[in-house]
Amino acid sequence: MPEVYVHAVEGRTLDQKRDLVRDITAAVVAHFGSPPEAVMVQIVESPKHHKAKGGVLFSDREAPRT
Amino acid sequence: MPEVYVHAVEGRTLDQKRDLVRDITAAVVAHFGSPPEAVMVQIVESPKHHKAKGGVLFSDREAPRT
Amino acid sequence: MPEVYVHAVEGRTLDQKRDLVRDITAAVVAHFGSPPEAVMVQIVESPKHHKAKGGVLFSDREAPRT
Amino acid sequence: MPEVYVHAVEGRTLDQKRDLVRDITAAVVAHFGSPPEAVMVQIVESPKHHKAKGGVLFSDREAPRT
Amino acid sequence: MPEVYVHAVEGRTLDQKRDLVRDITAAVVAHFGSPPEAVMVQIVESPKHHKAKGGVLFSDREAPRT
Amino acid sequence: MPEVYVHAVEGRTLDQKRDLVRDITAAVVAHFGSPPEAVMVQIVESPKHHKAKGGVLFSDREAPRT
Protein backbone atom coordinates (compact mmCIF):
# COMPACT_ATOMS: atom_id res chain seq x y z
CA MET A 1 0.00 0.00 0.00
CA PRO A 2 -0.19 2.08 -2.02
CA GLU A 3 -0.47 -0.13 -5.08
CA VAL A 4 0.50 1.31 -8.46
CA TYR A 5 -0.48 -0.20 -11.81
CA VAL A 6 1.20 0.94 -15.02
CA HIS A 7 -0.65 -0.07 -18.19
CA ALA A 8 1.61 -0.01 -21.24
CA VAL A 9 1.96 -1.67 -24.62
CA GLU A 10 4.71 -4.22 -24.96
CA GLY A 11 8.14 -3.24 -26.20
CA ARG A 12 10.12 -1.83 -23.29
CA THR A 13 13.31 -3.49 -22.08
CA LEU A 14 13.86 -4.98 -18.65
CA ASP A 15 16.18 -2.07 -17.80
CA GLN A 16 13.49 0.46 -18.66
CA LYS A 17 11.00 -1.36 -16.44
CA ARG A 18 13.51 -1.69 -13.60
CA ASP A 19 14.21 2.04 -13.68
CA LEU A 20 10.53 2.95 -13.88
CA VAL A 21 9.39 0.93 -10.87
CA ARG A 22 12.34 2.26 -8.84
CA ASP A 23 11.52 5.91 -9.56
CA ILE A 24 7.75 5.50 -9.14
CA THR A 25 8.36 3.86 -5.77
CA ALA A 26 10.66 6.74 -4.77
CA ALA A 27 7.94 9.25 -5.73
CA VAL A 28 5.35 7.46 -3.57
CA VAL A 29 7.76 7.32 -0.64
CA ALA A 30 8.70 11.01 -1.02
CA HIS A 31 5.20 12.45 -1.41
CA PHE A 32 2.85 9.99 0.33
CA GLY A 33 5.20 9.06 3.16
CA SER A 34 4.86 5.30 2.66
CA PRO A 35 7.66 3.00 3.82
CA PRO A 36 9.39 1.64 0.67
CA GLU A 37 8.58 -2.00 1.45
CA ALA A 38 4.86 -1.13 1.52
CA VAL A 39 4.85 0.15 -2.06
CA MET A 40 3.80 -2.30 -4.77
CA VAL A 41 4.24 -1.46 -8.46
CA GLN A 42 2.94 -3.71 -11.22
CA ILE A 43 3.45 -3.28 -14.96
CA VAL A 44 0.43 -4.52 -16.90
CA GLU A 45 1.75 -5.07 -20.40
CA SER A 46 -0.57 -5.30 -23.36
CA PRO A 47 0.09 -6.76 -26.82
CA LYS A 48 -0.35 -4.18 -29.58
CA HIS A 49 -3.41 -5.95 -30.92
CA HIS A 50 -5.20 -5.53 -27.57
CA LYS A 51 -4.93 -1.78 -27.17
CA ALA A 52 -6.46 0.99 -29.25
CA LYS A 53 -6.38 4.75 -29.54
CA GLY A 54 -8.93 6.60 -31.62
CA GLY A 55 -10.70 3.30 -32.21
CA VAL A 56 -7.74 1.74 -34.03
CA LEU A 57 -5.60 -1.06 -32.57
CA PHE A 58 -1.92 -0.24 -32.11
CA SER A 59 -1.08 -3.23 -34.31
CA ASP A 60 -3.10 -1.67 -37.15
CA ARG A 61 -1.63 1.79 -36.61
CA GLU A 62 1.82 0.43 -37.15
CA ALA A 63 1.15 -1.42 -40.36
CA PRO A 64 3.65 -0.49 -43.08
CA ARG A 65 2.42 2.32 -45.28
CA THR A 66 3.39 1.79 -48.89
CA MET B 1 -9.34 9.82 -21.55
CA PRO B 2 -11.67 8.17 -21.02
CA GLU B 3 -9.96 4.82 -20.68
CA VAL B 4 -11.99 1.67 -21.28
CA TYR B 5 -10.94 -1.82 -20.15
CA VAL B 6 -12.71 -4.90 -21.49
CA HIS B 7 -12.06 -8.06 -19.46
CA ALA B 8 -12.79 -11.21 -21.48
CA VAL B 9 -11.71 -14.82 -21.69
CA GLU B 10 -9.50 -15.75 -24.58
CA GLY B 11 -10.95 -17.05 -27.82
CA ARG B 12 -12.04 -14.06 -29.90
CA THR B 13 -10.51 -13.35 -33.30
CA LEU B 14 -8.55 -10.26 -34.22
CA ASP B 15 -11.46 -9.09 -36.37
CA GLN B 16 -13.86 -9.36 -33.45
CA LYS B 17 -11.51 -7.31 -31.28
CA ARG B 18 -10.95 -4.73 -34.02
CA ASP B 19 -14.68 -4.24 -34.44
CA LEU B 20 -15.31 -4.06 -30.71
CA VAL B 21 -12.74 -1.34 -29.96
CA ARG B 22 -13.99 0.68 -32.95
CA ASP B 23 -17.61 0.61 -31.79
CA ILE B 24 -16.83 1.21 -28.12
CA THR B 25 -14.75 4.23 -29.11
CA ALA B 26 -17.61 5.53 -31.26
CA ALA B 27 -19.99 5.16 -28.30
CA VAL B 28 -17.67 7.16 -26.02
CA VAL B 29 -17.29 9.88 -28.66
CA ALA B 30 -21.04 10.03 -29.28
CA HIS B 31 -22.23 10.12 -25.67
CA PHE B 32 -19.34 11.58 -23.66
CA GLY B 33 -18.19 14.06 -26.27
CA SER B 34 -14.54 12.99 -26.19
CA PRO B 35 -12.33 13.56 -29.22
CA PRO B 36 -11.63 10.13 -30.80
CA GLU B 37 -7.86 10.35 -30.32
CA ALA B 38 -8.38 10.81 -26.55
CA VAL B 39 -10.22 7.49 -26.16
CA MET B 40 -8.13 4.49 -25.09
CA VAL B 41 -9.59 0.97 -25.19
CA GLN B 42 -7.69 -2.03 -23.85
CA ILE B 43 -8.75 -5.67 -24.03
CA VAL B 44 -7.57 -7.59 -20.96
CA GLU B 45 -7.69 -11.20 -22.05
CA SER B 46 -7.73 -14.01 -19.54
CA PRO B 47 -6.90 -17.70 -20.03
CA LYS B 48 -9.82 -19.98 -19.20
CA HIS B 49 -8.03 -21.37 -16.17
CA HIS B 50 -7.77 -17.89 -14.63
CA LYS B 51 -11.42 -16.92 -14.64
CA ALA B 52 -14.34 -18.42 -12.75
CA LYS B 53 -18.08 -18.10 -12.53
CA GLY B 54 -20.03 -19.68 -9.70
CA GLY B 55 -16.71 -20.66 -8.12
CA VAL B 56 -15.72 -22.91 -11.05
CA LEU B 57 -12.91 -22.08 -13.49
CA PHE B 58 -13.97 -21.73 -17.13
CA SER B 59 -11.44 -24.44 -18.01
CA ASP B 60 -13.24 -26.85 -15.67
CA ARG B 61 -16.68 -25.84 -16.90
CA GLU B 62 -15.73 -26.88 -20.39
CA ALA B 63 -14.41 -30.31 -19.53
CA PRO B 64 -16.00 -33.01 -21.66
CA ARG B 65 -19.04 -34.56 -20.02
CA THR B 66 -19.22 -38.28 -20.65
CA MET C 1 -18.71 -11.61 -18.63
CA PRO C 2 -17.24 -9.73 -20.30
CA GLU C 3 -16.77 -6.93 -17.78
CA VAL C 4 -16.18 -3.42 -19.07
CA TYR C 5 -14.78 -0.57 -16.99
CA VAL C 6 -14.96 3.02 -18.22
CA HIS C 7 -12.66 5.43 -16.37
CA ALA C 8 -13.78 9.04 -16.76
CA VAL C 9 -13.60 12.34 -14.91
CA GLU C 10 -16.79 13.52 -13.29
CA GLY C 11 -19.18 15.81 -15.11
CA ARG C 12 -21.38 13.67 -17.36
CA THR C 13 -25.16 13.53 -16.87
CA LEU C 14 -27.14 10.44 -15.99
CA ASP C 15 -28.56 10.40 -19.52
CA GLN C 16 -25.07 10.38 -21.03
CA LYS C 17 -24.08 7.47 -18.80
CA ARG C 18 -27.29 5.57 -19.55
CA ASP C 19 -26.72 5.91 -23.28
CA LEU C 20 -23.06 4.94 -23.04
CA VAL C 21 -23.58 1.70 -21.11
CA ARG C 22 -26.42 0.72 -23.46
CA ASP C 23 -24.30 1.18 -26.59
CA ILE C 24 -21.17 -0.42 -25.13
CA THR C 25 -23.24 -3.45 -24.14
CA ALA C 26 -24.70 -3.63 -27.64
CA ALA C 27 -21.18 -3.56 -29.12
CA VAL C 28 -20.05 -6.45 -26.87
CA VAL C 29 -23.14 -8.47 -27.79
CA ALA C 30 -22.70 -7.76 -31.50
CA HIS C 31 -18.98 -8.51 -31.80
CA PHE C 32 -18.17 -10.91 -28.95
CA GLY C 33 -21.43 -12.86 -29.08
CA SER C 34 -22.17 -12.53 -25.37
CA PRO C 35 -25.76 -12.75 -24.15
CA PRO C 36 -26.80 -9.23 -23.03
CA GLU C 37 -27.46 -10.26 -19.42
CA ALA C 38 -23.86 -11.51 -19.13
CA VAL C 39 -22.36 -8.11 -19.97
CA MET C 40 -21.39 -5.89 -17.03
CA VAL C 41 -20.42 -2.26 -17.57
CA GLN C 42 -19.14 -0.07 -14.74
CA ILE C 43 -18.34 3.64 -14.90
CA VAL C 44 -15.44 4.51 -12.60
CA GLU C 45 -15.75 8.23 -12.09
CA SER C 46 -12.85 10.31 -10.86
CA PRO C 47 -12.88 13.78 -9.31
CA LYS C 48 -10.86 16.29 -11.31
CA HIS C 49 -8.25 16.57 -8.57
CA HIS C 50 -7.52 12.83 -8.81
CA LYS C 51 -6.69 12.59 -12.48
CA ALA C 52 -3.82 14.09 -14.42
CA LYS C 53 -2.60 14.42 -17.98
CA GLY C 54 0.89 15.59 -18.75
CA GLY C 55 1.63 15.55 -15.03
CA VAL C 56 -0.99 18.22 -14.24
CA LEU C 57 -4.24 17.49 -12.37
CA PHE C 58 -7.43 18.23 -14.32
CA SER C 59 -8.47 20.56 -11.49
CA ASP C 60 -5.33 22.62 -12.06
CA ARG C 61 -5.68 22.58 -15.83
CA GLU C 62 -9.06 24.21 -15.54
CA ALA C 63 -8.04 27.08 -13.30
CA PRO C 64 -9.18 30.41 -14.72
CA ARG C 65 -6.54 32.05 -16.90
CA THR C 66 -6.46 35.80 -16.44
CA MET D 1 -21.58 -9.22 -9.86
CA PRO D 2 -19.68 -8.81 -7.67
CA GLU D 3 -16.46 -9.11 -9.65
CA VAL D 4 -13.29 -10.10 -7.83
CA TYR D 5 -9.77 -9.62 -9.21
CA VAL D 6 -6.79 -11.33 -7.58
CA HIS D 7 -3.42 -9.90 -8.61
CA ALA D 8 -0.58 -12.35 -7.96
CA VAL D 9 2.86 -13.21 -9.28
CA GLU D 10 3.14 -16.36 -11.33
CA GLY D 11 4.02 -19.66 -9.73
CA ARG D 12 0.85 -21.16 -8.26
CA THR D 13 -0.53 -24.48 -9.49
CA LEU D 14 -3.88 -25.00 -11.13
CA ASP D 15 -5.11 -26.74 -7.97
CA GLN D 16 -4.19 -23.75 -5.84
CA LYS D 17 -6.07 -21.43 -8.20
CA ARG D 18 -9.08 -23.74 -8.35
CA ASP D 19 -9.30 -23.84 -4.55
CA LEU D 20 -8.85 -20.09 -4.22
CA VAL D 21 -11.63 -19.08 -6.62
CA ARG D 22 -13.98 -21.61 -5.00
CA ASP D 23 -13.42 -20.25 -1.50
CA ILE D 24 -13.50 -16.59 -2.51
CA THR D 25 -16.79 -17.21 -4.28
CA ALA D 26 -18.16 -18.94 -1.18
CA ALA D 27 -17.14 -15.93 0.94
CA VAL D 28 -18.95 -13.50 -1.39
CA VAL D 29 -22.07 -15.69 -1.36
CA ALA D 30 -22.00 -16.03 2.43
CA HIS D 31 -21.42 -12.39 3.33
CA PHE D 32 -22.78 -10.35 0.41
CA GLY D 33 -25.73 -12.61 -0.36
CA SER D 34 -24.97 -12.92 -4.07
CA PRO D 35 -26.22 -15.96 -5.99
CA PRO D 36 -23.13 -18.11 -6.81
CA GLU D 37 -23.60 -17.85 -10.59
CA ALA D 38 -23.42 -14.05 -10.33
CA VAL D 39 -19.94 -14.08 -8.78
CA MET D 40 -17.00 -13.65 -11.15
CA VAL D 41 -13.42 -14.23 -9.97
CA GLN D 42 -10.42 -13.52 -12.18
CA ILE D 43 -6.77 -14.22 -11.39
CA VAL D 44 -4.51 -11.59 -12.94
CA GLU D 45 -1.12 -13.23 -13.00
CA SER D 46 2.06 -11.22 -13.35
CA PRO D 47 5.53 -12.36 -14.42
CA LYS D 48 8.16 -11.72 -11.73
CA HIS D 49 9.85 -9.08 -13.85
CA HIS D 50 6.65 -7.01 -13.98
CA LYS D 51 5.99 -6.63 -10.27
CA ALA D 52 8.01 -4.83 -7.63
CA LYS D 53 8.04 -4.31 -3.90
CA GLY D 54 10.21 -1.67 -2.31
CA GLY D 55 11.14 -0.49 -5.80
CA VAL D 56 12.82 -3.79 -6.73
CA LEU D 57 11.38 -6.25 -9.26
CA PHE D 58 10.56 -9.72 -7.90
CA SER D 59 12.87 -11.18 -10.55
CA ASP D 60 15.76 -9.15 -9.12
CA ARG D 61 14.88 -9.98 -5.52
CA GLU D 62 15.30 -13.63 -6.31
CA ALA D 63 18.72 -13.39 -7.89
CA PRO D 64 21.12 -15.97 -6.49
CA ARG D 65 23.04 -14.70 -3.48
CA THR D 66 26.60 -16.00 -3.45
CA MET E 1 0.77 -9.21 -2.40
CA PRO E 2 -1.46 -10.66 -3.53
CA GLU E 3 -3.87 -7.77 -3.99
CA VAL E 4 -7.59 -8.49 -4.20
CA TYR E 5 -10.18 -6.06 -5.55
CA VAL E 6 -13.89 -6.67 -5.01
CA HIS E 7 -16.17 -4.61 -7.26
CA ALA E 8 -19.68 -4.34 -5.86
CA VAL E 9 -22.67 -2.01 -5.93
CA GLU E 10 -23.29 0.01 -2.79
CA GLY E 11 -25.62 -1.26 -0.10
CA ARG E 12 -23.69 -3.68 2.12
CA THR E 13 -23.14 -2.98 5.80
CA LEU E 14 -19.79 -2.49 7.48
CA ASP E 15 -20.18 -5.89 9.16
CA GLN E 16 -20.70 -7.59 5.82
CA LYS E 17 -17.57 -5.93 4.44
CA ARG E 18 -15.54 -6.77 7.54
CA ASP E 19 -16.51 -10.43 7.29
CA LEU E 20 -15.82 -10.58 3.56
CA VAL E 21 -12.29 -9.18 3.70
CA ARG E 22 -11.47 -11.48 6.63
CA ASP E 23 -12.58 -14.61 4.79
CA ILE E 24 -11.05 -13.65 1.44
CA THR E 25 -7.74 -13.03 3.20
CA ALA E 26 -7.98 -16.42 4.91
CA ALA E 27 -8.59 -18.07 1.53
CA VAL E 28 -5.50 -16.41 0.02
CA VAL E 29 -3.39 -17.45 3.02
CA ALA E 30 -4.70 -21.03 2.92
CA HIS E 31 -4.33 -21.67 -0.81
CA PHE E 32 -1.58 -19.32 -2.01
CA GLY E 33 0.59 -19.55 1.08
CA SER E 34 0.92 -15.79 1.55
CA PRO E 35 1.63 -14.39 5.02
CA PRO E 36 -1.57 -12.65 6.23
CA GLU E 37 0.07 -9.22 6.53
CA ALA E 38 1.03 -9.38 2.84
CA VAL E 39 -2.57 -9.74 1.66
CA MET E 40 -4.38 -6.55 0.64
CA VAL E 41 -8.13 -6.54 -0.02
CA GLN E 42 -9.95 -3.49 -1.35
CA ILE E 43 -13.69 -3.09 -1.86
CA VAL E 44 -14.42 -0.87 -4.85
CA GLU E 45 -17.99 0.26 -4.30
CA SER E 46 -20.09 1.62 -7.13
CA PRO E 47 -23.26 3.72 -6.97
CA LYS E 48 -26.22 2.01 -8.65
CA HIS E 49 -26.29 4.58 -11.43
CA HIS E 50 -22.70 3.71 -12.43
CA LYS E 51 -23.09 -0.01 -12.97
CA ALA E 52 -25.14 -1.87 -15.57
CA LYS E 53 -26.10 -5.39 -16.48
CA GLY E 54 -27.69 -6.18 -19.82
CA GLY E 55 -27.12 -2.57 -20.84
CA VAL E 56 -29.39 -1.19 -18.09
CA LEU E 57 -28.12 0.75 -15.06
CA PHE E 58 -28.89 -0.84 -11.68
CA SER E 59 -30.63 2.39 -10.69
CA ASP E 60 -33.02 1.95 -13.62
CA ARG E 61 -33.54 -1.75 -12.97
CA GLU E 62 -34.82 -1.00 -9.53
CA ALA E 63 -37.37 1.60 -10.52
CA PRO E 64 -40.82 0.76 -9.15
CA ARG E 65 -42.86 -1.34 -11.55
CA THR E 66 -46.50 -0.35 -11.53
CA MET F 1 -0.70 5.98 -22.79
CA PRO F 2 0.72 4.70 -20.58
CA GLU F 3 -2.00 4.88 -17.95
CA VAL F 4 -0.99 4.78 -14.29
CA TYR F 5 -3.38 4.01 -11.42
CA VAL F 6 -2.37 4.69 -7.82
CA HIS F 7 -4.56 2.95 -5.23
CA ALA F 8 -4.30 4.61 -1.80
CA VAL F 9 -6.37 5.10 1.32
CA GLU F 10 -7.79 8.55 1.86
CA GLY F 11 -5.93 11.15 3.87
CA ARG F 12 -3.36 12.80 1.59
CA THR F 13 -3.52 16.52 0.82
CA LEU F 14 -4.03 18.04 -2.60
CA ASP F 15 -0.40 19.16 -2.59
CA GLN F 16 0.80 15.61 -1.95
CA LYS F 17 -1.31 14.34 -4.83
CA ARG F 18 -0.18 17.13 -7.14
CA ASP F 19 3.48 16.34 -6.43
CA LEU F 20 2.97 12.60 -6.84
CA VAL F 21 1.32 12.74 -10.26
CA ARG F 22 3.97 15.21 -11.48
CA ASP F 23 6.86 12.95 -10.46
CA ILE F 24 5.26 9.71 -11.65
CA THR F 25 4.64 11.34 -15.03
CA ALA F 26 8.26 12.48 -15.17
CA ALA F 27 9.42 8.92 -14.43
CA VAL F 28 7.28 7.51 -17.28
CA VAL F 29 8.59 10.16 -19.68
CA ALA F 30 12.21 9.56 -18.64
CA HIS F 31 12.22 5.75 -18.76
CA PHE F 32 9.48 4.78 -21.23
CA GLY F 33 10.01 7.66 -23.63
CA SER F 34 6.37 8.72 -23.73
CA PRO F 35 5.46 12.30 -24.60
CA PRO F 36 4.21 13.98 -21.38
CA GLU F 37 0.75 14.73 -22.77
CA ALA F 38 0.23 11.01 -23.46
CA VAL F 39 0.71 10.02 -19.81
CA MET F 40 -2.43 9.65 -17.69
CA VAL F 41 -2.21 9.24 -13.92
CA GLN F 42 -5.28 8.55 -11.79
CA ILE F 43 -5.42 8.35 -7.99
CA VAL F 44 -8.01 5.80 -6.86
CA GLU F 45 -8.72 6.76 -3.28
CA SER F 46 -10.33 4.34 -0.87
CA PRO F 47 -12.09 5.04 2.42
CA LYS F 48 -10.42 3.31 5.38
CA HIS F 49 -13.39 0.99 5.83
CA HIS F 50 -12.99 -0.36 2.30
CA LYS F 51 -9.38 -1.49 2.45
CA ALA F 52 -7.79 -4.23 4.54
CA LYS F 53 -4.38 -5.63 5.31
CA GLY F 54 -3.99 -8.94 7.10
CA GLY F 55 -7.75 -9.40 6.88
CA VAL F 56 -8.49 -6.31 9.03
CA LEU F 57 -10.02 -3.09 7.66
CA PHE F 58 -7.87 0.02 8.05
CA SER F 59 -10.73 1.63 9.96
CA ASP F 60 -10.57 -1.16 12.52
CA ARG F 61 -6.78 -1.10 12.71
CA GLU F 62 -6.85 2.52 13.75
CA ALA F 63 -9.40 2.21 16.53
CA PRO F 64 -8.12 3.72 19.76
CA ARG F 65 -6.39 1.18 21.96
CA THR F 66 -7.11 1.73 25.62
Structure write-up:
- Six copies of one chain form a homohexamer.
- By secondary structure, the first copy, chain A, is an alpha+beta fold.
- Chain A has one domain (3-61): Macrophage Migration Inhibitory Factor (2-Layer Sandwich), CATH 3.30.429.10.
- Chain A has helices at residues 14-32, 58-61; strands at residues 3-9, 40-46, 51-53, 56-57.
- In chain A, strand 1, helix 1 (14-32) and strand 2 (40-46) form a beta-alpha-beta unit.
- The longest helix of chain A has 19 residues, at 14-32.
- The radius of gyration of chain A is 16 Å and the shape is elongated.
- The termini of chain A are far apart.
- Chains in contact: A-B, A-D, A-E, A-F, B-C, B-D, B-F, C-D, C-E, C-F, D-E, E-F.
- Chains B and C meet through strand 1 and helix 1 of B and strand 1 and helix 1 of C.
